[in-house]
Write a structure and sequence with these properties.
This protein is an all-alpha fold and about 230 residues long. It has a single domain, classed as Growth Hormone, Chain: A. The chain is built from 8 helices and no strands. It is globular and about 55 Å long. This is Transmembrane protein. Keywords: Membrane, Transmembrane, Transmembrane helix. It comes from Pseudooceanicola atlanticus. InterPro entries: DUF1275.
Length: about 230
């Protein structure tokens, strides 16, 4: 799941990647909204809200939203740099290492939130989650050649509409549309299910929820890392 890249990947591998990581992304996004009232995976909404609050004169809220966009981009940039350099140096399991690093970042966030409270904890959580979700989206985009994007819900909804329209085409176009529809539907539904589960878990576990999410990512990344080291 985290070893084969681009055209080497099968539909089954991409479905597994999308289902697992979109579930975690949805859970993290829901936790951020419950705690701070912002969507740390939804950059479309954050940019729109920034523009709205800036026009209405709510400068404090606008300045609160802008760093989320920057940290999402920074997370995507850092993941791309790490993965591309790893691939250039022929590091085995470069993508698996990235997911393990994401897990460690979430574990650090969990610890950081237990040591802080109030506004400091809130700012730490939202900025960190934006970075982590940008990081994850970059990893899945690179490994699948943009077929899988675990936080790109608006784009997936659009692609589902386009895919439904393509079902009326010829046989080859219809076959391709069905495969894409399946992938986007799995990603979208997994993100939603993760959101529900994340809201419940965060209400129950608080800051330790992020340690739970880190453990889930380690369960995905570490076996793939070991498999990569065994693969010629």
């Amino acid at each position: 799941m985290l070893i084969r890249v681009g055209q080497e990947r099968t539909e089954k591998i991409n479905l597994a990647l999308a289902g697992m990581l979109a579930t975690i992304a949805g859970a993290l996004n829901a936790a951020g909204f419950l705690a701070a009232g912002v969507f740390t995976a939804n950059m479309t909404g954050n940019v729109s809200a920034f523009a709205d609050t800036l026009v209405t004169g709510d400068i404090a809220v606008a300045l609160w939203l802008l760093p989320l966009v920057f940290t999402f981009i920074l997370g995507a940039y850092c993941a791309a740099i790490l993965v591309l350099r790893g691939l250039a140096k022929k590091v085995r399991g470069a993508f698996a290492w990235a997911i393990v690093l994401e897990a460690l970042l979430l574990a650090a966030l969990s610890i950081g939130m237990t040591l802080t409270d109030g506004t400091v904890s809130e700012v730490l959580m939202t900025v960190s989650l934006s970075f982590v979700l940008g990081f994850q989206n970059s990893v899945t985009t690179l490994i699948s050649e943009a077929r899988v994007r675990t936080t790109h819900v608006s784009g997936m909804a659009t692609d589902i509409g386009v895919g439904l329209a393509s079902l009326s085409g010829d046989r080859d176009r219809k076959r391709d549309a069905i495969a894409k529809l399946k992938l986007h539907a799995i990603t979208l539904s997994s993100f939603a299910i993760g959101g529900i589960a994340g809201a419940i878990a965060f209400n129950w576990a608080g800051a330790w929820f992020f340690a739970m999410a880190a453990a889930a990512l380690l369960l995905i990344g570490l076996p793939e890392l070991l498999r990569a080291r065994r693969t010629p």
